[in-house]
Amino acid sequence: MKQEIERYLSKNQHTALNIKAAFFDMDGVLFNSMPYHAEAWKRTMNAHNIPFELHDAYICEGRTGASVINEMFLKHKGRMATEEEIQLMYKEKSDCFNSISKVERIPDILPLLETLKADGVDIYIVTGSGQESLLDRLNKWFPDIFSKEKMVTAFDVKKGKPDPEPYLIALAKSGVKPNEAFVVENAPLGVRSSVAAGLFTFAVNTGILTTEELECEINDSGIVLKDMKAVREYYLKELRVEN
Ligand code: MG
Q1: Does residue 76 sit in the same domain as residue 122?
Q2: Which end of the chain has less Cβ packing within 10 Å, N or C?
Q3: 95: CA distance to ligand 1 center in Å?
Q4: What is the pLDDT of residue 37?
Q5: Which of 59, 78, 100 is the last residue before a domain boundary?
Q6: Helices (H) and strands (E) in the chain, counts
């Protein structure tokens, strides 16, 4: 058994991982949307004379727009943003994102999802996104993989990541125990949420973070891998339940 699985089992007092469900984050895991979110945040912040680098957006991923804006205001202006400032800047950021973004799948994500589906693993999406048309977009790019009942979105949660709440809701919806599921995440705060929910977590570095920036959130509950191909290989070798 792999060391990281042993560490996870001993930390969480389970005897085995017996995978029945898989929980997927969306931005940076299913879709390569983070470069566009990061660019849109950078342009919006800079237009308001707030220093902001692309890397900052990757570190903040998972927070609400209002929380990102407030954090930057506190850091650079010494005060919180007003409600008007938050609404204005969030609209500017969203408009910018919509004007520059292209929809692209993350490389090698589809074979991973198809393998899990063929094995009868229940596939859930756990995202902070609250777009009304989410399911249509998922069905277009991932036909027959996701369904309305197997989604946790902004509409389901009060706290959102990095709180464990979204993954705890996924556990409740799927009816599996923590040692019967795994998570695929790309953001430090998403990993923190998943680990806090007691789940074995793949932190896949699909963006510009350093490995250390993801590794420091794992806390004996998973592994950092470089791409989705590596996740599929790991699943096949270490986690697949032989029937
Ligand atoms: Mg993400």
Answers
A1: no
A2: C
A3: 20
A4: 95
A5: 100
A6: 11, 6
In this prediction, residue 177 carries a pLDDT of 98
Per residue in 84-126, pLDDT (tens digit) is 999 999 999 999 999 999 999 999 999 999 999 999 999 999 9
Residue 166 structure tokens: 């979204």
- Cα 194 to Cα 202, 204, 217: the distances in Å are 10, 13, 10
Asked if residue 134 and residue 229 are part of one domain, the reply reads yes
CA nearest to 233, candidates 225, 242, 241: 225
Ligand 1 center to residue 128 CA distance, Å?
A: 9
Q: Residues lining ligand 1 (ion), CB within 5 A? A: 25, 27-28, 186-187
Confidence label for 133 from pLDDT (cuts 50, 70 and 90)? confident
pLDDT band at 49 (very low <50, low <70, confident <90, very high): very high
Query: Cα dihedral sign for 35, 41, 47, 53?
Result: negative
**Residue range 154-177: mean pLDDT, rounded:** 94
| Domain region containing 95 | 34-100
pTM over 0.90: yes
Residue positions counted in the chain: 243
46 and 156 within one domain: no
The DSSP 8-state label assigned to residue 15 in this structure reads: S
